[in-house]
Design a protein that fits this description.
This protein folds into 3 domains: 11-103, 3-Layer(aba) Sandwich (Rossmann fold); 124-222, no CATH class; 245-489, Rossmann fold. Helix 4 (136-152) packs parallel to helix 6 and helix 11 (294-302) runs parallel beside helix 16 (433-443). It has helices at residues 18-31, 70-77, 93-123, 136-152, 154-157, 175-185, 198-208, 227-230, 241-253, 269-274, 294-302, 336-345, 355-358, 401-411, 418-423, 433-443, 453-464, 479-484; strands at residues 11-14, 35-39, 48-49, 61-64, 86-88, 126-130, 160-164, 191-194, 260-263, 306-309, 325-327, 349-351, 367-372, 386-389, 391-394, 397-398, 426-429, 476-477. The strands form 4 sheets. It has a 7-stranded parallel sheet, sandwiched between helices. A 5-stranded parallel sheet has the order 3-2-1-4-5, with helices on both faces. A 3-stranded parallel sheet has the order 6-7-8. It is an alpha/beta fold. The chain starts with 10 loop residues before the first strand and ends in a 6-residue tail after the last helix. The relative contact order is 0.08. 38% of the residues lie in helices and 14% in strands.
């Protein structure tokens, strides 16, 4: 029989037996299908439910595997659930035994294929790279760092690489950015770029289940160790002349006719809309209100800039309205192409810790980081970058950087998770409009320094070296921020 299962559905097995447990493993390892639990009238345990309980569960389908009692189980479950959500996998002992035999045969073939892959890849010096395409920040940073090594590192030129791309279309966070990198990959004879095919799917399955020799896998994940790379590199990806002409036409339609600046404020609307089946509340600590930019927008307009608020799906419009302030997500011209084109052409970009703002790294666009979190993190697109972090309150006092680093390291919790700050009793305070305006003025040279400012910067950099993840990042912190929040470096 043919059964189509989507991984986002709520699938249960019945009854609970050693065979259904093996079948659960088979579905997970072969098709990446997760089972939510078992339905069994005579057994108890974690994730095992009685038929009378299923009305309280969210169920897409119950798969019944029992040659002797399948019909009886089916008839009983119809008392509690619609027939459309019940599937008898086998109707006879013969079919049952055949299905189990097929599982075992696939497992044997699996071992033979994997042995062949490990031997061949090792002999021909082939390494596997998996692209994380569904998040735009990783799509940019990882590809940039990898391609830089391909171009400038001689040892990489003597190797062969298989790049595994997306499996389903919705896993591409931005089609334009993806295509720009794909076009570069295909220029190199030692890079084999795999998209939607059975070999790509099989290798991804093998990687996920740790069936490939570790020596054959190249991890291209980037953290702060890429600081020197991004602050000293030239752009690798480029738009074609045709794309530039098209992009310039859309800029005119948006009334962007002179130098412009991009601003961005992360909120939860994009992830909650795009990834409906996942909870992204652990990233909420990075959010802030777009209207906090109002003072800065007015200042930039007075300086002769056009201000463009960027983003795809956002929670609300800008409250401030002005002909030289473009709320691009609410325009008729929002697209994957323009999301990237705008960033590539702006004078500088302002925003919080976000994948979209990370795209500036690909085009060497200076970045002003505001409301940055974690507070020991900092942007690194160019050597002109500057930032200010959010402020943390712990036990009714502002938390200095050194105390924060000690607290996080002692807790052994991830500082990339909202729950961590809740567990530690830390309150997060966003930057004020005045603080954001001050760091923009400093970037544009419209700010006066005093004799203590250089000392404050030195103190900050000395403390920042204690950060385990970001000690290599030497990005300047806002001068006014340290003046008015001197507790940060005490």
């Amino acid at each position: 029989m043919k059964l189509k299962i989507k991984n986002k559905e709520n699938i249960y097995l019945s009854p609970y037996t050693p065979i259904t447990v093996e079948f659960e493993k088979y579905l997970k390892n072969t098709f990446d299908i997760d089972i939510d639990g078992y339905i069994d009238s005579s057994k108890d345990g974690t994730n095992i439910y009685k038929p009378k309980d299923i009305q309280d569960l969210s169920i897409s389908n119950i798969l019944i595997l029992s040659p002797n009692w399948g019909k009886e189980i089916y008839d009983n479950l119809t008392n509690f659930l619609n027939k459309d959500k019940l599937t008898i996998m086998v109707k006879s002992s013969k079919g049952y035994n055949k299905s189990i035999l097929n599982i075992r045969l696939i497992q044997i073939i699996d071992k033979l294929i994997l042995k062949l892959i490990n031997n061949i890849f090792g002999f021909y010096n082939i390494q596997i790279i998996k692209l994380w395409t569904h998040r735009i920040g990783e799509l940019c940073l990882e590809n940039e760092a990898f391609l830089d090594k391909i171009i400038n590192n001689k040892s990489y030129k003597n190797k062969n690489f298989i790049v595994l791309s997306y499996l389903i279309e919705k896993d591409i966070s931005n089609r334009t950015l993806y295509d720009l990198y794909k076009n570069i990959f295909r220029k190199y004879k030692n890079i084999f770029f795999l998209e939607k095919n059975i070999f790509n799917k099989y290798l991804q399955y093998a990687l996920k289940n740790k069936l490939i020799n570790k020596k054959l896998i190249l991890n291209i994940e980037q953290k702060s160790n890429a600081y020197e790379l991004f602050t000293n590199k030239k752009p690798i990806i480029k738009f074609t002349k045709k794309d530039i002409i098209n992009g310039d036409k859309i800029l005119k339609k948006l009334n962007i006719t002179k130098p412009f600046v991009c601003i961005f404020a992360r909120d939860s609307k994009y992830t909650h809309t795009t990834f409906k089946h996942y909870s992204w509340s652990h990233n909420d600590y990075r959010n802030f209100d777009i209207d906090t930019y109002e003072l800065t927008i007015k200042y930039l307009i007075e300086k002769g800039y056009i201000v463009v608020r960027i983003g795809n799906i956002v929670s609300k419009e800008l409250a401030f309205k002005h002909p030289q302030c473009i709320d691009y997500p609410y325009s008729d011209f929002q697209s994957d192409f323009m999301d990237i084109f705008l960033i590539s052409k702006c004078q500088f970009i302002m925003g919080s810790t976000s994948g979209l703002v990370d795209v500036s790294c690909a085009f060497s666009i200076p970045r002003i980081g505001v409301n940055y979190m974690p507070i020991d993190h900092a942007p690194y697109s160019t050597n002109k970058d500057i930032f200010i972090p959010k402020k943390l309150i712990y036990k009714n006092k502002y938390l200095g950087l050194e105390q924060y680093l000690a607290l996080i390291q002692k807790s052994n919790l991830s500082h990339w998770d909202t729950n961590t700050y809740d567990k530690l009793g830390i309150t997060i305070e966003n930057n004020t409009g005045k603080e954001i305006l001050a760091v923009v003025k400093e970037y544009l040279g419209d700010y006066g320094y005093n004799k203590d400012d250089e000392l404050n910067q030195q103190k900050y950099q000395q403390i920042h070296l204690k950060s385990k993840q970001f000690k290599e990042v030497k990005t300047k912190i806002g001068t006014d921020f340290l003046r008015t929040n001197n507790w940060f470096i005490k």
